[in-house]
Amino acid sequence: MTLPNFGVGTFRLSGQAATDSVRMALELGYRAIDTAQIYANEADVGRAIAASGVARSELFITTKIWTENFGRDRLLQSLRESLDKLGTDHVDLTLIHWPAPGHAVPLTEYMAALAEAQAQGLTRRIGVSNFNIELTRQAIAAVGRDQLATNQIELSPYLQNRRLVAFLRQQGIAVTSYMTLAYGKVLRDPVLARIADKHGATVAQVALAWALQLGYAVIPSSTRREHLASNLRARDLRLDEDDMAAIAALERNGREVNPEGLAPAWD
Questions:
Q1: pLDDT tens for residues 115-168?
Q2: For residues 267 and 161, is the Cβ–Cβ distance under 8 A?
Q3: 232 assigned to some structural domain
Q4: Among 45, 49, 209, 263, which residue is least crowded by beta carbons within 10 Å?
Q5: Is the dihedral of CA 180, 182, 188, 189 positive or negative?
Q6: What is the CATH number of the domain that holds 70?
Q7: Would 34 be classed as within a structural domain?
Q8: Are 165 and 175 contacting, i.e. CB atoms less than 8 angstroms apart?
Q9: 185-203 pLDDT, tens per residue?
Q10: Which residues are catalytic?
């Protein structure tokens, strides 16, 4: 099953805002939705899906297991609870959201539980998020390289994560980029603004097109219909070699998400 390269994210959205965002995205033609247990919005997302009239077979739903649910029995039960909230009998992709804090639960245990969830039909594919190279190696050893659909990691023009991306490509593991707009910081970048003017595009479209052209999947979010629609048009923007080189030069290790006690030793 091929992972979609463009979806709508729901990080930091809850309640009616989350429902409205997903509802608008589905109306605009989005078919991939990214959520997580810790976002506390799976039920909100489920309401939008139920009201949309879009067939379940047309959707690609991703959720992520939170760290407190990493124990084998708890992981399976928590995923069933997520399915109930989402109003579906399976998700298309389930990720381990962060490595276990302090290795309190062995990686082999929670990866085996995730594989068991797949075997039971609760999820079609499995993967990881926020894993560095060493942890990804351990996940491969635990469940097999071909089982890992993606590693969802922070990537933006300011944080290009080249070593990790090169390793994932070597392993045949897809890259999903989150925080591609760096909390909106890239929207004020003069280099990206010049590229946007050159193409008659928005800066957000340029940043998203850059990620897409590098082969990453992207999951931008918005509560505004016009921004959701505009982001979607990034799929039609083609940047030239000069554009890509100029964006490559923006790397500054500009990490936005680095929670103490959760984040691994980044590559």
A1: 999 999 999 999 999 999 999 999 999 999 999 999 999 999 999 999 999 999
A2: yes
A3: no
A4: 263
A5: negative
A6: 3.20.20.100
A7: yes
A8: yes
A9: 999 999 999 999 999 999 9
A10: 39
Complete DSSP assignment for 54-69: --GGG-EEEEEE-GGG
> Rounded to whole angstroms, what are the CA distances from 231 to 49, 117, 166, 202, 210?
20, 33, 26, 9, 12
Token pair listed for 157? 């023009």
pLDDT tens figures, 108-117: 999 999 999 9
Specify the pLDDT at position 96.
Answer: 98
CA 220 to chain centre: 9
Q: Which domain holds residue 175?
A: 8-183+216-223
* Sequence-ordered list of residues with C-beta below 8 angstroms from that of 42, at least 6 positions apart, any chain: 35, 36, 63, 82, 85, 86
> Distance between CA atoms of 219 and 45, rounded to whole angstroms?
15
Q: Count how many residues are written for the chain.
A: 267
- Strands 91-96 and 148-154: what pairing? unpaired
* Closest to 64 (Cα-Cα) out of 79, 46, 50, 77: 79
First to last CA, the chain: 29
pLDDT over threshold 80, residue 180: yes
Distance CA 218, CA 228 (A): 13
Is the pTM higher than 0.85?
yes
Number of domains present in the structure of the chain: 1
**In which element (H, E) is residue 85 found?**
helix 72-86
Place 2 in a pLDDT band, splitting at 50, 70 and 90.
Answer: confident
